[in-house]
Design goal:
The complex is a heterodimer of chains A (about 260) and B (about 130). Chain A has about 260 residues and is of the alpha/beta class. In chain A, about 20% of the residues lie in helices and about 40% in strands. Chain A has two domains: about 120 residues, Rossmann fold; about 120 residues, Tumour Suppressor Smad4 (Sandwich). With about 130 residues, chain B is mostly beta strands. Chain B has one domain. In chain B, the strands form two sheets. In chain B, strands 1, 3, 4, 6, 7, 9, 10, 12, 14 and 16 form a ten-stranded parallel sheet that branches. Chain B has a six-stranded parallel sheet with strand order 2-5-8-11-13-15, with no helix packed on it. At the A-B interface, strand 8 and strand 10 of A face strand 1, strand 2 and strand 3 of B.
Chain lengths: ~260, ~130
């Protein structure tokens, strides 16, 4: 039996979609227990309740930030994560190999799982897709990699666990399992260049520097906020990031 | 829809932007493109493209090397080495196939891996000496 945690719906359309998903899960006899986050019961609390109840699989239904924040909590307890993205442009579709929530509902009972990398930010924070540093003003970043150091003026730096994200680059499934994260740097000169096209939309940014690495340390001339995909600050520079290989087990569609 | 991911055969691409100053050794299993400044060795099992704005102080070793910028150091290209019109090399090079385009600068010695001097010519040289 699975434990489903739904993100608090932002509007009527999302609430309707959640109801349709719950109805379909019931019809397929794979509902288990479903809870919807609300102002009183935060998503993290609901996940912890599910873990305490002993559910081996926790299914997260919501935005990318919602999944990014909660998946590491489940991974830490060595339980399996199911994902039902609620946004069409979610970076998780590629990862799970489905392109519609109905496909995921068919895939869930098959319980085919794969391990993916997580990125540790500092000592306590983790993320599955990406985080970024973005500043209207140019800043100078000092980055230390295993074999070299770089100094670079930047306006945006993205730390991504394998090209997944909503910043105009399409995810590469294998990069999520290669034990490396990618650092993408966009500087002041890059803004003048044209954007790059992706499957979903045109990015306004060009990343002239791209470095794959298992870990790195970053310092900036002034403290810069490290932002989650939805813009919430989850840390600040100086910071260290490192990949934890195969740290999270996720239900995916059977790959042929 | 059938989802069929294709396995990555070589490592990820590394790009070093124009504004980057890198100190240390850049090693990779994937292709590398350099447009910034590097003080240290560059080494990969794949190709290296050195852009017009690139300045490298150190040796370069790769499968194929394409030079449009400046390199102060020795270069080993296991397959092809191409110095384009904007390229400048101050160091020794060793490769199987060498292409130096018009306008390129090359100051150093060159060697071709796997190629021996023809025997007849060696005999001629001995004859000349005697």
């Amino acid at each position: 039996m699975y434990y489903y945690v739904f993100e608090q719906p932002k509007n009527k359309r999302e609430a309707g979609l959640q109801n349709r998903i719950i109805a379909e899960l019931e019809a397929e006899n794979i509902l288990g227990e479903a809870v919807i986050a609300n102002p009183i019961q935060k998503p993290k609390e609901l996940v912890e309740i599910g873990l305490e109840k002993g559910f081996r699989t926790i299914v997260l239904a919501g935005s990318d930030s919602f999944v990014n924040n909660l998946a590491p909590i489940i991974a830490e307890k060595k339980r399996v994560v199911g994902i039902i993205p609620l946004a069409r442009e979610s970076s998780f579709w590629n990862l799970i190999g489905c392109y519609h929530w109905r496909e995921i509902i068919k895939a869930l009972p098959q319980r085919r799982t794969e391990n993916f990398d997580l990125v540790r930010l500092g000592q306590e924070k983790f993320f599955l897709t990406f985080v970024k540093i973005e500043d209207q003003k140019q800043f100078v970043a000092f980055l230390e990699f295993p074999d070299f150091k770089i100094v670079v003026p930047a306006k945006t730096i993205i730390f991504t666990n394998g090209g997944f994200g909503q910043e105009g680059f399409v995810g590469n499934y294998f990069l999520l399992k290669d034990g490396k994260l990618q650092v993408l740097i966009s500087g002041p000169k890059d803004e003048k260049r044209g954007g790059i096209f992706s499957f979903f939309k045109k990015s306004e940014k060009v990343f002239s520097t791209k470095i794959p690495t298992p870990w790195l340390k970053i310092k900036t001339e002034r403290p810069e906020k490290i932002l989650a995909p939805d813009g919430t600050a989850i840390g600040q520079t100086p910071a260290g990031l490192a990949v934890e290989k195969n740290a999270v087990r996720i239900i995916v569609k059977r790959r042929v | 829809m059938v989802f069929e991911p294709k396995e990555q055969k070589e490592g990820q691409e590394t790009l070093i932007g124009e504004d980057v100053v890198l100190n240390g050794n850049l090693k990779s299993s994937g292709p590398i493109q350099i447009n910034g400044r590097i003080k240290g060795k560059v080494e990969t099992e794949a190709d290296v493209v050195i852009g017009e704005t690139a300045k490298i102080n150190g040796s370069v070793k790769a499968k194929n090397v394409f030079i449009n910028g400046t390199v102060w150091g020795n270069i080993i290209a296991l397959e092809d080495l191409e110095v384009n019109p904007t390229g400048k090399v101050f160091g020794d090079i060793l490769t199987k196939n060498l292409i130096i385009k018009k306008g390129a600068v090359f100051v150093g010695r060159s060697g071709m891996e796997g190629i021996e001097e023809p025997k007849e010519k060696k005999k001629d040289k001995k004859a000349e000496k005697s």
